[in-house]
User: What shape does this take?
Amino acid sequence: MILLLSIGILIVLIYIAYQNTKQAEFTRVTLPINDIGDGGLHILHLSDMHMENLSISPEQLNEQLKNEPIDLIALTGDYLDRARSIDKLRPYLKVLKNINAPYGIYVVFGNHDYVLKPHSLERLKKLFLEVGCHVLINESKTIKVKDQIINLIGIDDYSTKRSNPKKAYANIEDGINIVLTHDPNIVLKLTDYHFDYLLSGHFHGGQIHYPKAFHLIKMGKLPRMNIIKGLHFIENKAFYISEGLGQTGFNIRLRSKPEITLHTLISKE
Assistant: This one.
């Protein structure tokens, strides 16, 4: 009897955990940044799409985004880890392209993307370029927003030892620094590099966060500090960790939901 009850509870939990993967939460973050200009800057942030375990369809994504003010799109890695999933990514990128964000789409890679063989990784990169994305691999792109210089700095994946901040910062101009990267643990290594905001993912908010995300402890110092999602500050520098849109391993979530984030950067008073 106890065994049957336990099995029944497990089945219910798995069902709930799977249903959670279909319920993307739209998170809005407003952050004061010096001299960003009137009206601010609206950044759509998606991370950890994991095409192999993604329960949000392109149509659902489009429905959630179609009426939003989006100036710039940031994608922070872990799109897939199997070559056959590359074509599955295409319709999602089409949704993002059709937003026509005036300042473009910016892409960095994560640890799962580097599981791909070199020729498949090149195919993935080519797809992004075909859609008009800027792929930043330890490099930067400078834009001007209402006379304000903004450096978009892409630092490659820290967990696979591909990060090179010195190279990524090499060509920046005097202005606002926004860093895009996958593994947020890199913030602990950026004491000599200024950033106004850093966007990342990697931890999935724990994904299976019950009672705590104990399995993240091996993933660096930040999880051991209980920093696995949301907005945080280090040395007065702001960084955000997305819970991600897809899942890895099993397509389930407990005490975590897929996340779509709209960051609105405004000027400080």
Q: What stands out?
A: The domain at 2-267 is CATH 3.60.21.10 (Purple Acid Phosphatase; chain A, domain 2). The chain has a mean pLDDT of 93.
